[in-house]
Amino acid sequence: MGGLSEGDDVLARWSDGLLYLGNVKRVDGVKQCCLVRFEDNSEFWVLRKDIHSFSAGIEGVCCVCDAPPLKEPLVNCHKCRHGFHPQCHVPTIELEADCSSWICRQCVFAVATKRGGAMKRGRFARLMQIMKLRLPYQLSELDWDPQHLTNQQQCYCYCAGPGEWNLKMLQCGGCGQWFHEACMQCLTKPLLYGDRFYQFECSVCTKGPETIERLPMSWVDLAHLVLYHLSLCCKRKYFDFDHEILSFANENWESLLLGTLSDTPRQDRCKNLLDALNSHKDRFVSGKEIKKKKCLFGLQVRAPPPLTSDLSPFIMDPPLGISPKRSPLSALCQKGAVDSGPRKSKRHVKEVQPSPQGAGANPVDLMSFCRVGGTNRFGLKRTEDELNGLVENITLQMGNKKMFMLVILEWYGGPLGKPVAVHIIILRWGGGGWVG
Ligand SMILES: [Zn+2]
Ligand SMILES: [Zn+2]
Ligand SMILES: [Zn+2]
Ligand SMILES: [Zn+2]
């Protein structure tokens, strides 16, 4: 498949936009993906588009279109040695340029993308800025979910890699595409999980450097953001106010870029945050309400803090996103509280493994995923009214298809906390509409 075979050493792009070293274990030519074993021995199915091979390919043909040179000779990348027709590369290779030291888009991104934000200075930063003026895919051809958070092709950012909108990505206010923290050159501080308090415009839309502006945040937004970030990092629901919530806010105070709140003296932050947590029962649950310690707080719904511009009050975080995929090498790169990466989800291998029956849903798997989401909800011992008509929106990944599951829990008078009817509707986005 596309010049890849078992045993090849490759670079695979992860949902954080970074490339990781791996070895091809299996090749699925039909679904255009490979099972890749990474350096930490984890194995994941990766789409062909996200795999870059080290081998120089077939001598004398273009690595994009497999055709021999036309009038002009192929231009070879100085780093990876792959040959290109000038017009097959995005952007088109300028023939006046010094072709002996020319570097291809993939190699520029491999060097310039960084956790916390891409390089801003030096030759690779400048080359990256030029590459970013054009996307290597047709944005208008992507099939988005109704909330414009995920697309069927799993194609995001300048790098065309996979992505998770709630895990350190920003949406461009111009074109609506989502971009990786690692591929952005405009950030002054690393992103927190779920932090969308930025007005961002991509290089394609500005036709130049990206623009970014911090949006104002309230104490409620800050409390929500800290709880969301901590819940993804630690995979827990409740956090101690003094030792975790307040101390995280204090330790990262400068990086949080809080605008008008940033001048708040240390001794006043405690009261403001605590007031926010106690006065917004729609967003936060305190330990007091669940007969735990009153200094514990958690989120009612594990969703990033909403923006005032959002149409719906909460964009539901799919329950499967509870454990963001740890990148294969993130353990080696963890540093500081902001950067501490979440643990790897063991379920992930199963999620993306193409099912033997093809992209069709496996009912047993769907049911078990559903129960995972349900248990969390029921564990809260919701009242009858709260449970009535409760709707969960779950995104499942099957092969390269995203499945959407709408779970409607209904209350028919069973014992408190135990709904007796669970309705599950499985939908798939296809052909411009929802397929049941
Ligand atoms: Zn070509
Ligand atoms: Zn190259
Ligand atoms: Zn990217
Ligand atoms: Zn844009």
TrEMBL record:
<dbReference type="GO" id="GO:0003677">
    <property type="term" value="F:DNA binding"/>
</dbReference>
<keyword id="KW-0479">Metal-binding</keyword>
<dbReference type="InterPro" id="IPR019786">
    <property type="entry name" value="Zinc_finger_PHD-type_CS"/>
</dbReference>
<dbReference type="GO" id="GO:0008270">
    <property type="term" value="F:zinc ion binding"/>
</dbReference>
<dbReference type="GO" id="GO:0005634">
    <property type="term" value="C:nucleus"/>
</dbReference>
<dbReference type="InterPro" id="IPR011011">
    <property type="entry name" value="Znf_FYVE_PHD"/>
</dbReference>
<dbReference type="Pfam" id="PF00628">
    <property type="entry name" value="PHD"/>
</dbReference>
<dbReference type="InterPro" id="IPR013083">
    <property type="entry name" value="Znf_RING/FYVE/PHD"/>
</dbReference>
<dbReference type="Pfam" id="PF18104">
    <property type="entry name" value="Tudor_2"/>
</dbReference>
<dbReference type="InterPro" id="IPR040477">
    <property type="entry name" value="KDM4-like_Tudor"/>
</dbReference>
<dbReference type="GO" id="GO:0003682">
    <property type="term" value="F:chromatin binding"/>
</dbReference>
<dbReference type="GO" id="GO:0045814">
    <property type="term" value="P:negative regulation of gene expression, epigenetic"/>
</dbReference>
<keyword id="KW-0677">Repeat</keyword>
<feature type="domain" description="PHD-type">
    <location>
        <begin position="59"/>
        <end position="110"/>
    </location>
</feature>
<keyword id="KW-0539">Nucleus</keyword>
<keyword id="KW-0862">Zinc</keyword>
<dbReference type="InterPro" id="IPR047399">
    <property type="entry name" value="Tudor_PHF1"/>
</dbReference>
<dbReference type="InterPro" id="IPR001965">
    <property type="entry name" value="Znf_PHD"/>
</dbReference>
<feature type="region of interest" description="Disordered">
    <location>
        <begin position="335"/>
        <end position="360"/>
    </location>
</feature>
<protein>
    <submittedName>
        <fullName>PHD finger protein 1</fullName>
    </submittedName>
</protein>
<dbReference type="InterPro" id="IPR019787">
    <property type="entry name" value="Znf_PHD-finger"/>
</dbReference>
<keyword id="KW-0863">Zinc-finger</keyword>
<dbReference type="InterPro" id="IPR002999">
    <property type="entry name" value="Tudor"/>
</dbReference>
